[in-house]
Amino acid sequence: MKKLIITAAISGAEVTKAMNPAVPYTKDEFVREARSACDAGASIIHLHVRTDDGAPTQDKARFAEIIDAIRSACPDVIIQPSTGGAVGMSLDERLQPTELYPEMATLDCGTLNFGGDEIFENTENTIKYFGQRMIERGIKPELEVFDKSMIDMALRLARQGFIRSPMHFDFVMGVNGGISGDIRDFVFLRGSIPADATYTVAGIGRYEFPLAALAIIDGGHVRVGFEDNVYLSKGVPAASNGELVAKVVRLAGEFGRPIATPDEARKELGIRI
Ligand code: KMH
Ligand code: ZN
User: Whose CA is nearest to atom 4 of ligand 1?
Assistant: First the structure.
């Protein structure tokens, strides 16, 4: 059976230590969380960084510092910086980590409500601009889709040359403002991508593990981590990102899916080795 790529979204931009004290802010905390995830079986680290006091930042120097430190602890892992950053950041602020030429980065494929008065803004021209930068910089985009319309947008922009095939999607399901994490919606998204595309699924909150199980059975890939969910099970905070990854590894074992190493993930996603 196709090997399972596990992505650990270890920090996010919105989750805080008040929600789970293991959420990383400092460089050492990022290394601790990345190491726990890699040791448990993650082959990709989806990365947002923070200042030491926890504020989200897209600062290039801060990314470089934390990426270097993670590399020392987990030399092989694929590091996938966010270009979504946090709501309200400017486009060029968000693009800063792509100046470090990472192997992968996220490319958010549409605008959505993000709770309360927040709007996560990604106009068509923004997506084109980000897609073009990633092509120029040799970065494999992970196409973040929070709704079906964002798949349609990605397909349209691929036809126009702003995104290359084969495409790799991340179905982010259960955000307040995006598509729900119901099975019906998973099947809808899953059936809406090209035959040569790959996907991972990121279920938010209580959707994390049910959607992981569906993707494991379906031959897709899985993202877990504090960015999406801070609980190991109902009411039980995860002690680390590694605990969340380990739970996915256990589920995969039950369904006979072996876990991909970082190099196996590179091969599956068409990333240069
Ligand atoms: N923090 C959200 C506003 C991404 O990483 O590309 C955007 C986000 C998506 O997390
Ligand atoms: Zn993110």
Answer: 84
Q: Which residues of 191-205 are buried (b: 16+ CB within 10 A; e: fewer)?
A: eebeeebbbbbbbbe
Could you report the per-residue pLDDT of 190-245, keeping only the tens digit for each? 999 999 999 999 999 999 999 999 999 999 999 999 999 999 999 999 999 999 99
Average pLDDT over residues 160-180: 98
**C-alpha distances in angstroms, 178 versus 29, 140, 146, 173, 224?**
30, 24, 5, 7, 18
Ligand 1 atom closest to the Cα of residue 87 is 3
Cβ of residue 87 lying under 6 Å from some atom of ligand 1: yes
Q: Taking the model in full, what pTM does it have?
A: 0.98
Ligand 1: residue whose CA is nearest its atom 1 = 86
**Distance of alpha carbon 137 from alpha carbon 133, whole angstroms:** 6
Domains in the chain with CATH codes: 6-269 (3.20.20.70)
CB 86 within 8 A of CB 14: yes
Say how many Å lie between the CA of residue 83 and the centre of ligand 2: 8
